[in-house]
Please model this.
Amino acid sequence: MNGAGRFEAYDEHEGQPPQDGSSSGEEHRRNQEENGPADTTRGTDGMDNGNGDDLHPTTEPDPDQPPRIPLPRASVEDTGRPLPDPVPRPMPLVLEHRVLKSLLGAWALAACSPEETAAVEDHLGDCGSCADEARRLREAVGLLHPAESLDLDPSLRARVLQGCLERRPPRIPVPAWATPYDAETARLDALLQDFGDAEWHAPVRLRWFRKDEPTSRRTTVAGVIAHLLTVDGMVAVALGLADPMGEVAADRATPAGRTEAYWRASHYPPTRAVRAPWREQTHDLVRTVSFTGGGTGGLSVPYGDFELPLRDAMLDRAFECWVHAEDIADAVDYPYEPPSGSDLHHMVDLAARMLPMVLSARRQAGLAAPPPGPHRHLVPAGEPGRSLRLEIEGSGGGEWLIPLDSPAAVGSAEHEVAHVALDGTEFCRLAAGHVSPEEAAAGQVGDRTAIRDVLFAAASLSRM
Model:
């Protein structure tokens, strides 16, 4: 090679390559014959090796001698030598149209060989119908990979807090029944953090069931936060905190009544300004129940048509916060994960414990079938009666025996007449009114009437 010859000349002749970049040793010898032999009294470092001062040489370097430092290597383009041939692109295969069309699916999945890929891509430039089909297949492949949330795993917060608390217990711990509310409000607040004006005014449709009929109410993202503010205010009033309604009077002291009154009293549609009072109220609720201790869990919280103990009311508010956070995420086309497994289990447990009361109320309203045959009379309190086994699968799962004939009865495996299996998030969405009883993907065995009554009772738990 050209470079090898140059280095050979440099090593052989004491680092004096020719000025013209040639590697010929013969030319160097001709220069010596014309100019005389090199000065042998000088070392390779250009210093006088005779009696002169080594630090102050007495002779100047010969300007006719080539420089000791080699010249830069010439580029390949400057030598005039031919450049190496580029690697040729593989020639596309010559395939029939039907074969190329059959390869479109594999091409969309990036599963073709390089030759097949080249053939398909060359064909797409000439065939409009195949190009349209290829575009649709690529879009379909994109749907196979659902959008991933940028948020952290919902259970990560609980794990981090648990690790911190194991090292340093808190002076004032949050009651266990209030931690789901604390976690879900924090997750929703993180979702709202980067919303602009357009997102705050994005339309949202709240959905629930009323007398077995789906019902909805149109609002905005800001309107949803205002709804959470007013309903959480019912818990705040029970704890002796300020009512976010202020001087606004509601026609009915129910979640829907308070929300509608708050919306009507607003001079303008709610905006991002509602986030700050909502978040401050959530902190006040968690702080207050923490300072008052876990013994306040039995405090009654009125909901207008019914009451819940404080521990269940806080869990109910955590459930509503998650459900409406999903409504908001759907409105802005953003993925939102369900709660952690332990929190989801507590939410399912609350709904399962409320089912007997709802079944009784529906039976009194004529919306549920009365007990058949000899079981037409209510079962005495504390006695076992007909039961339905509710099996919740997946994260937060478990099993519950739901008494069917009386809210005061005890669920009994010996009196089991039906068995229903549901995914945990599917059951919660049924209880939120986002899934109808007919559409719920449930495994069902046993008494069909009892199964229908329980599924419709679960949907009746929903409200605005």
About this structure: Residues 2-25, 33-58 have pLDDT under 50 and may be disordered. Residues 250 and 258 are 5 Å apart (CA to CA). Strands lie at 203-210, 213-220, 300-302, 307-309, 384-393, 398-403, 410-423, 443-446.
